[in-house]
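Weekly modeling sync, notes
Attendees: AB, CL, MP (scribe)

Item 1: holo prediction request
CL wants a bound-state model with fe (ii) ion before deciding which constructs to order. AB pointed out that an apo prediction alone won't tell us much about the pocket. Agreed to run with the ligand included and paste results into these notes for async review.

Input as submitted:
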Amino acid sequence: MKTETSPMASQPDSAESETESRINAPVNRRSFLRNSAVAGAGAVGAGLLATAPKALSEESHGHLTRGDAALLRFAAAAEILETDFWVQYNELAGIQDDEVPGGSGNSAYATALADIDDDMPHYIHDNTDDEFTHQNFLNAYLMSKGAAPVSLEQFRTLPGSTATGSSGKPRLTNLMKLTLDTSWYTRYRSDEHNPDLDPNFAFPQAVPDLAKGQHTAIPRTDADTSDPNFLQAIVNTALWHFPTIEQGGSSLYPSMAQRATSVEVLRILISIGPTETMHFQTWSDLAGDAVPLTAVDPVSGVSVTFPDLNSAPFGGELFETGLIMPEPCPFLSRKLPRCSIIRPTQTKGVAMGALKFLTSMGLFNGQSSAFFHLMAELAEQADAAVRGGM
Ligand SMILES: [Fe+2]
Ligand SMILES: [Fe+2]
């Protein structure tokens, strides 16, 4: 969840500059309390559906605390965003069916991904399907408790890929200008450092070039599939984007769960979270299969090198691609024995940290200031949730 790289490697537009300041600003507790006091089960911001359908609220058993609702609402928003970009991958390289409709496949891109692993179309499809169900379940659960669900549909405005296979529908997220922090790779291989105990330690990047400049993880147009070397660089970027996202989810859920009040909300968070980790583990294995190469983006001129992680100056405990199980590391206290764990999991400010992580990645490149405003509000409210609160 932490990023050691510069959040905005290229010039951010004004909406993103505003977000950065909003995300970095301390929570305005008084305004939050005032807003949430009137919010209750109703809307807490633009983009939230005002009321739950009557039939669902009649099935409500008990009510959610304000904090529990805020934790689930932030998770729902994150899942909606996850669903949106996984759909883009599925349209081009997954399996388009009733579970995950849309798009018709891009054979050049899909073939290059399937060359990494025959099961790639299934993995992409099933990851996408999982995100749909996370999003749908969280919103349905909120409504079943008479609490406001989340909708981001008004922000579905970004143009996506125009390459063959794309549905061409407007998107919430942008996969074409990514800046990826791949330091999770060495974070999970380090037996000395845990970001919760060493917040200032900079874990080395696995692919240093992805942490600077902007890189596309999907073919933007059919022209992007004409040069096999550049197409492989796009595939490599996707292979690193998949686990980079899913490790974030792996930390987000256990971090938020520590402030859940209802046991059922706790159960939801600790039951969804490990599926993010199942995704992460699968993708972290496949990232090691990215093909070492150097390519220059013909549109932006940005150069990217994917190193051979098994050879000097890489290699060894921190980089060998076969070492995909988490290395035990210090946990809670250095006086206790090392433990193999998800990290980080400290709970303070985790939602805003997650939002900052996704924003720094460039996933919201082109989004409006209203989008960032709503997301920051949802994060602030989730971070204000208190275990045992009202
Ligand atoms: Fe998810
Ligand atoms: Fe996920």
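Recorded for review: Residues 16 and 167 are 27 Å apart (CA to CA).
Action items: CL to compare against the apo run; MP to circulate these notes.
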